[in-house]
Design a protein that fits this description.
alpha/beta, 5-stranded parallel β-sheet, 5 strands
Length: about 160
């Protein structure tokens, strides 16, 4: 039986988000999935979860989704490597991260797990182990997807630092 305050998972209708949601539910957590009204919800089948409709880029829907939440797993992203309008990637990944994090701060969320991308790391050569201690600057990122993920990661880092005080 699920217990405690709900844990919000953004991107729960996607491949990685659904796996995170299932793992939390299997652990006995109370989980809430953010889903756009148009999203395919097959990945939520069989998972004991509350579904809240909304969009990560919409501040009002994020405020609603965050009610009563003490933990957040922000997994949602637009992971296309190309879009006719590259601004769509930035709006989803950066504006979305801003709206999600603003709502989390306003709701007093205690724990945030932010899922970024390997695209945010500087891979100097094939023989060096690369981790988050080798961040890529946005100007070094090639393409709208990578630039949007780097910008979003830097934003989340700044906002997390504000929440630490």
């Amino acid at each position: 039986m699920p217990s405690g305050d709900p844990i919000l998972v953004t991107g729960a209708t996607g491949f990685v988000g659904a796996a995170v949601l299932r793992a939390l539910a299997d652990r006995g957590e109370t989980v809430r999935a953010l889903a756009r009204p148009t999203s395919n919800r097959r990945n939520l089948d069989g998972v004991a979860c509350e579904i809240v409709e909304g969009d990560m880029t919409d501040a009002a829907s994020m405020t609603r989704a965050m009610r009563g939440v003490r933990q957040l797993y922000h997994v949602a992203a637009d992971y296309r490597l190309w879009a006719r309008d590259p601004g769509e990637l930035r709006r989803a990944n950066l504006t979305g991260a801003q709206a999600v994090m603003d709502a989390a701060l306003a709701a007093g969320v205690e724990r945030v797990v932010y899922t970024s991308s390997v695209a945010t790391l500087r891979a100097a050569d094939a023989t060096t182990v690369v981790d988050e201690t080798a961040p890529l600057a946005e100007a070094e990122a090639i393409g709208a997807y990578k630039q949007s993920k780097v910008a979003a990661e830097r934003l989340v880092e700044r906002m997390a630092a504000l929440g630490d005080h």
